[in-house]
Design goal:
The complex is a heterodimer of chains A (about 110) and B (about 110).
Chain A (H helix, E strand, L loop, with lengths): L4 E3 L2 E5 L4 E6 L6 E7 L6 E6 L5 E4 L2 E5 L5 E6 L8 E9 L4 E4 L3 E6 L1
Parallel strand pairs in A: 2-11
Antiparallel strand pairs in A: 1-3, 3-8, 4-5, 4-9, 6-7, 7-8, 9-10, 9-11
Chain B lengths: L4 E3 L2 E4 L5 E6 L6 E7 L6 E7 L14 E5 L5 E5 L8 E8 L8 E2 L3 E5 L1
Parallel strand pairs in B: 2-10
Antiparallel strand pairs in B: 1-3, 3-7, 4-5, 4-8, 6-7, 8-9, 8-10
The chains are: A mainly beta (about 110), B mainly beta (about 110).
Chain lengths: ~110, ~110
């Protein structure tokens, strides 16, 4: 059983479309991070959110942390082929002093 | 500064042989993680080291898997009597603060068991 559930598992869209992917849990997290992984490489950190309700923007990417700090979403506006990759969320819990990953959303943006 | 490095980058071994995978974390990072990633899948947590505390081994899939972290720095993941289902990319990550620290990943070791 995954501590963090990500949805959808797979997403294939056309260039220019908007999309949202989700990361949900029944646990409260002290912080939550989003990573993107491209083939043959390790994941690379995109953003960290720590405050309930927090919204962060990174160019065309908007990240939101749920008010209760149990869930998060990533919205991409006007997706481009370069956005293709595996998007992973990871939650940190101070009570157990570690971070765990969801299974990821595999995004394909077709030109 | 140097990032997380892993060696070897690729390893092909015969079923039944033992393998050792190495991870050099970023200097000063107290937390170190090992993950396994099968083709097209997400990250499977294996083991976690935090400072001098006892490691969290809860993700190790069998007693054929073990890991050490010497001197709070370099870590070695050992797989004994490898099986074909062990074939995967093994990723190492380190962070400064475990629960809030951004994880920095190495490029991984691709293990193929024939």
């Amino acid at each position: 059983t995954q501590l963090l559930e990500q949805s959808p598992q797979f997403l294939s869209i056309q260039e220019g479309e908007n999309l949202t992917v989700y990361c949900n849990s029944s646990s409260v997290f002290s912080s939550l991070q989003w990573y993107r992984q491209e083939p043959g490489e390790g994941p690379v950190l995109l953003v960290t959110v720590v405050t309930g309700g927090e919204v962060k923007k990174l160019k065309r990417l908007t990240f939101q942390f749920g008010d209760a700090r149990k869930d998060s979403s990533l919205h991409i506006t006007a997706a481009q082929p370069g956005d293709t990759g595996l998007y992973l969320c990871a939650g940190g819990r101070v009570s157990v002093n570690d971070m765990r990953f969801g299974a990821g959303t595999r995004l394909t943006v077709k030109p | 500064g140097a990032g997380v490095s892993q060696s070897p980058s690729n390893k092909v071994t015969e079923k039944g042989k033992d393998v050792e995978l190495r991870c050099d974390p970023i200097s000063g990072h107290t937390a170190l993680y090992w993950y396994r990633q099968s083709l097209g899948q997400g990250l499977e947590f294996l083991i976690y080291f935090q400072g001098n505390s006892a490691p969290d081994k809860s993700g190790l899939p069998s007693d054929r898997f073990s890991a050490e972290r010497t001197g709070g720095s370099v870590s070695t993941l050992t797989i004994q009597r490898t099986q074909q289902e062990d074939s995967a990319v093994y990723l190492c990550a380190s962070s400064f603060l475990a629960a809030r620290g951004e994880q920095y990943f190495g490029p991984g070791t691709r293990l193929t068991v024939t």
